């Protein structure tokens, strides 16, 4: 209830008025059944704008520290993430990634929409980085279709490290659903998981127009020049 109150009454209308989302392909998101939204990750605000423009509730996971802060700031952070439908996951242990996937799998098995950032972390420099295969495992385990969602300019609206976003029209492109049911009998095959993940990342590259770097974002710092760069032909509007 708090999710819809925040989205439809308290915060959502104001955000839409200020940032005037321009969305292409919203009809590509299935109206029912389990769906995985595979998004590129440019900014903290990605987890705000993605649920904002969707007609269905979207569930992301976030580190548990966002829910345990002290004082007024901690309270606002906790209420925001709870209201946004985000589920806390303890990322301190070695099984943190699996815990996040298990949480999203439960969401999908209930027939709902799960959001995931295949890159695993925010892009350090705006480029698109190699996807981790967790998104493929989710698709194979749940049978859900994967919808690529390209956030095109959220790094300009709220660059990493900034608290107050710039007032600028947010642009989002949504691709057609990807069906990987043909691989249903090959769950656990790491080569199949890599192929699925690479297909998803290719679609995100084409939608976003961002350069693709075939290494994991977590292994790089912003100042490091990444190898193996490809550029999609489509430009960001």
Automatic annotation (TrEMBL):
PANTHER family: 1-ACYL-SN-GLYCEROL-3-PHOSPHATE ACYLTRANSFERASE. Keywords: Acyltransferase, Transferase. The keyword Acyltransferase applies. It comes from Actinoplanes aureus. The keyword Acyltransferase applies. GO terms for cellular component: plasma membrane. It comes from the Bacteria. GO terms for molecular function: 1-acylglycerol-3-phosphate O-acyltransferase activity. It holds the Pfam family Acyltransferase. One of its GO terms (biological process) is phosphatidic acid biosynthetic process. Residues 35-154 form the Phospholipid/glycerol acyltransferase domain. This is 1-acyl-sn-glycerol-3-phosphate acyltransferase.
